[in-house]
């Protein structure tokens, strides 16, 4: 499968100034931008910056960023699922995962996350993919936002809906371990029925085990 990537950009006016949302960003350009020190949800900011550059080098890897001037203040990643997760077991070339989305606290509430997803889906190549994201409440910044688990879940769902992702049922043990966890999916317009059936089998691998 050929992984085409077509660049798109959008300008957003926020109370904290103009933000450019753009991507997919090539690795060299990504490495040249400053990476805000508050982007620490997954690992220390310098290490996360490096990790994003590595993802951008992958054939299927996509990084969409939000930046103020030359400083990245938010991002979203798309790549193949982790080999240790069930979603990689089908070895589907047209299944990619929204692996991480993060926005610095200063810009939360400015619809940056929503616009990162909107710009991500502007690329017509996304119609060739099944895009998944697995939401686990233990990754959520409940303390920083002051939201409870259900309020946060509602916020995440609304944001994912902006990118066309919808809630899908699954018997994945980690997702089923807490009712706030969820699987969200966007099936592109050009995805064939065979791929959809294969994906359904991944969603319910325990269906026939008694």
From TrEMBL:
Domain called N-acetyltransferase: residue spans: 19-192
Alphabetized SUPFAM superfamilies for the sequence: Acyl-CoA N-acyltransferases (Nat)
Pfam families: Acetyltransf_1
Single annotated GO MF: acetoin dehydrogenase (NAD+) activity
Annotated CDD domains: NAT_SF
Gene3D superfamilies: 3.40.630.30
Superkingdom of origin: Bacteria
Biological-process GO terms, alphabetical: acetoin catabolic process
Matching PROSITE patterns: GNAT
Protein's name in the database: Acetoin dehydrogenase
Source organism of this protein record: Aeribacillus pallidus
């Amino acid at each position: 499968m050929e992984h085409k990537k077509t660049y798109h950009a959008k300008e957003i006016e926020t109370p904290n100034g103009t933000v450019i949302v753009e991507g997919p960003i090539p690795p060299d350009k990504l490495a040249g931008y400053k990476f805000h020190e508050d982007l620490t949800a997954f690992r220390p900011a310098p290490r996360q910056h490096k990790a994003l550059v590595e993802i951008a080098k992958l054939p299927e890897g996509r990084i969409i960023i939000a930046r103020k001037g030359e400083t990245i203040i938010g991002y979203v990643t798309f790549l193949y699922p982790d080999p240790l997760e069930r979603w990689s077991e089908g070895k589907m070339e047209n299944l990619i995962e929204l692996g991480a989305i993060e926005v610095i606290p200063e810009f939360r509430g400015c619809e940056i996350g929503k616009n990162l997803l909107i710009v991500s889906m502007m690329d017509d190549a996304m119609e060739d993919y099944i895009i998944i994201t697995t939401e686990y409440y233990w990754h959520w910044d409940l303390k920083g936002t002051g939201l409870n688990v259900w309020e946060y879940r509602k916020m995440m769902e609304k944001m994912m809906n902006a990118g066309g992702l919808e809630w899908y049922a699954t018997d994945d043990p980690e997702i089923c371990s807490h009712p706030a966890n969820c699987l969200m999916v966007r099936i592109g317009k050009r995805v064939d029925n065979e791929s959809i059936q294969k994906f359904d089998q991944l969603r319910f691998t325990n269906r026939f085990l008694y």
